[in-house]
Design brief:
The chain is α+β, with helices and mostly antiparallel strands. The chain contains 6 helices and 7 strands. The chain starts with 16 loop residues before the first strand and ends in a 6-residue tail after the last helix. It folds into 2 domains: about 50 residues, no CATH class; about 110 residues, no CATH class. The longest helix is centred in the last third of the chain and has 17 residues. Helix 4 packs across helix 6. A hairpin with a 6-residue loop joins strand 1 and strand 2. A 3-stranded antiparallel β-sheet has the order 2-1-5, with no helix packed on it. Strands 3-4 form a two-stranded antiparallel ribbon. Strands 6-7 form a two-stranded antiparallel ribbon. The relative contact order is 0.14.
Length: about 180
């Protein structure tokens, strides 16, 4: 039986996409923010509730709709951190990170900031493979709290620790609203 390092998650995370609310064309956000059919620029207005009759209300989408694969990217973030802690790509990933003692400590245990984990599974061929699954709810809440503390203190590296765009900014904002963040 052989045991290799963790394998990547089974599926690639879906790209960040958006749909034009004027002509309903769909595009990857990485490609364009302007609709190629009607020239509308991606807008992020919120859904509103409009009264159609005295008894019923109807929600109407105003603005373009964007979709992000949070679970898929969280699994890939966990995989990236696991590989980094094993040293396979650590030098390539953390070359731009200052080398303070606190920063090195965070990089050394960055796999502990994962909301997904890899569990070994014995295959029919007698080798082990990794299966990526969300961590238990109690572990998830502990990880979110540790990430929040790290983000508030400014001791993080977005490349290693953030699983989705602006995760650190949203966590700091939420901590401040709850009275746990520094001003």
């Amino acid at each position: 039986m052989t045991h290799e390092g963790p394998t990547p998650p089974a599926r690639d995370p879906a790209p960040w996409t958006w749909r034009c609310h004027e002509c309903y064309s769909e595009y990857p956000l990485a490609c364009t923010r302007r609709c190629l059919e009607c020239s509308h620029i991606l807008c992020t207005a919120r859904a509103t509730t409009t009264a159609t009759t005295a008894r019923s209300k109807r929600r109407r989408q105003q603005g373009c709709r964007a979709e992000f694969d949070y679970d898929g990217w969280a699994a890939w973030g966990a995989f990236r951190r696991t590989v980094a802690t094993q040293g396979a790509t650590k030098d390539a990933i953390s070359t731009s990170v200052p080398t303070s003692r606190r920063r090195r400590k965070l990089d050394a245990d960055c796999d502990k900031f994962a909301t997904w984990d890899s569990r070994s599974k014995l295959t029919a061929g007698g080798s082990y493979t990794s299966v990526w699954r969300p961590v238990a709810r109690a572990e998830y809440e502990r990880v979110v709290r540790r990430k929040e503390e790290m983000y508030v203190q400014g001791h993080h590296n977005c490349w290693l620790h953030c699983d989705y765009p602006s995760e650190c900014l949203r966590a700091v904002d939420a901590a401040r609203r709850r009275g746990r963040g520094a001003c």
